[in-house]
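=== Given protein ===
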Amino acid sequence: MDGSKLSISTTIISMGFLSRLFGIGPKVDLAELKKNGALILDVRTPGEFKSGHIKGSKNIPLQELNSKMKGLKKDQVIITCCASGMRSGSARSILKSAGYEAHNGGGWTSLKNRI
């Protein structure tokens, strides 16, 4: 394989990995999911959450998610959010690997405007 083909292949593989990690992919209607009962899960710290959050959202900091996810319903769609979309992308991956239907909503302020 020549260098340009290898570079393209590496880019495609990297993009696939990043897409899975951060929940980038086919667009879903987050407002419709919320309207149908999806839980907004804010994975920021309690201090960040207290400074502003989406009304009705649940706060479980990312570092506590593994130990507290058993309190989440497996039959409820979950939309994760944080400050920028990085932690919520990680939370989405954790939840999906545990069998939850989860979507990365990104930063909470932009998600608030989209739902």
Observations:
- DSSP finds six helices and four strands in the chain.
- The longest helix spans residues 3-22.
